Input
Amino acid sequence: MSAFEAETIRTERLTLLPLRPEHAEELAVVLSDPALHAFTGGAPEDAGLLRARYERWAAGAPEPSVSWCNWAVRLRAEQCLVGTVQATVTVDGGGDGGTDGGGDVAEIAWTVGTPWQRRGIASEAARGLVGWLRGSGVRTVVAHVHPDHAASGAVAAAAGLAPTDRWQDGEVRWEAATG
Output
């Protein structure tokens, strides 16, 4: 059993549901715009590929100190899924170079389908996720943001992260320490 397991998270407008393979069909449509991959690479995946990925994620990370936590983002007013958020949590992640070198570290990411962008959904989901992580005892939260992706930088800032002078794979490391 993982040290961290995704739980349902509620925010003002959203419900973050632990991601299940059954979400793949709806999310394949939500995430089908190739523009969503402009900064991350790759291409949209069909429902079969997403289902297989979600099944792998549900099986858990192979490393005992790592937990894969993934959520489908549901917009309650429209009663539909609109994206995903995720956290890879490393228990006692002192070796990652976090703010003060110890404690659990979570690397987070988010994706919201094109039709639902510019409505604050990604920011609200990321804030809800960071709040859940803090409440679960995570000490450091990290995101990697492409320097030209202003919208993603705004999401990271809204979630309480700040850019650092560290880079990884062409992206800026954003970080928030919780204690």
Notes: The longest strand covers residues 80-90. The longest helix spans residues 121-135.
